[in-house]
Structure formats: C-alpha cells, structure tokens
Design goal:
This protein is an alpha/beta fold and 216 residues long. Helix content is 50%, strand content 15%. Strand 5 and strand 6 form a beta hairpin.
Amino acid sequence: MRHRMVFLGPPASGKGTAANSVSAALGVPHVSTGQMFRAAIHKGGPVGEAAKQFIDKGQLVPDAIAMQVVRLWLDEHGRDGGFILDGFPRTRAQAEGFDRVLHEMGLAVTAAILIDATEAVILERVVGRLTCENCGALYHTAFVPPQRPGLCDKCGGKLSQRVDDTEETVRKRLEVYRQLTLDVVKYYEQAGILHHVDGGQPRDKVFADILGFLKS
C-alpha cells in the first residue's frame, strides 16, 4: 500500500521525529512545510519567487501559493511512492485545497496522524532545549544534557537557547495552533482517517503506535 499521510500536532509534540522514523521504516519520503518552501525558492520560477516575497517579510504564505508549492513537491517526490507531510495542512482551507489537488492527481490522503501532548510536556521540552552555535547539535537540560555544561559534546561549541524557546513564546504558538489546526483535526476526523497518538510517551512507543495503526 502507498501511504499518503499528514502528521499533525502542536509544537514540540514530536511529530517531526516520528515522521522521520516512519519515513525510514516504510521508505516513504517525508517533508516539512519549511523544506518544501526552501526547495521551491531554490528551484526558482514564479511559484518560488512568490513564496519568497512573503517569507522574507516574515509573513504567512497565502494558501493559494502554498498549494502550488505543495503540488510542485508532489510532482517531483510524492506522486508514485507516497509521502509524509509534516506540519501541513495548517488550516481547514488548506486541508480542503490539498484534497482538491490530490483528487486532480488521482490521489488521496490515506491517514492523518495526530501526535498530541499536554501543554506541560511541551513547555518542559521546549524551554530546556539547547543548540550548539557551531554544529547545530541539539541537547536538553533534563533529557539529553551535555557532558560538560554549556559545551557541545561533538565539537566543543557553545550551547545556547533559541530566542523563541521561552515559555511566553511557546504559549503563544500553542494558542495559534489551537485557533487554526484543531479545525484540521476535526476535518480528518470527520473523514474517518484520523489516528490519535500520545506524544508524551517515549519515542519508541509513539513509533510503535503509528506503525500499529498503519498495519491494521
């Protein structure tokens, strides 16, 4: 079966990590919204240029342009072998537009995976994150602490917290998620293809739960 999946969930729920694991296990290409936009911009052309104008200003890319970017990616990577989209669609309008694009291509989403986590779990994950300023390696003060405080185990570079990894910023991002993406969850739930996964579990259990849904 060719799996065509969307992974949904709040920031730091672990959907990107889970999507990577499922992609590797099933041999299905995985892409995030940001990766699709960067690929379109790198490729050039009117669609990439249109998206770049909004991204450079820090604005949301309009749905019509986002759909064109998604279609470009599907034409190159996801038409025949399936796909995993991470963080898209973000709104019900995008979900409906995505279905129309897939229908035109003779395709359909086969599963929507909602990886959810409580606000307390998300705050703990995000506020404790550390990134190496030199090589980009990721750490966490509680879960994956460096051997030497403040220094990267791999290259010795300085570890720092991202400016947007604060409790206030995370709460704002969660509020935006609730306002926009919960309608997407309802959309796929009504379609009968939504599967709930507890993102507060260990990564291996999240991965096992998803594979269980897909094989059932």
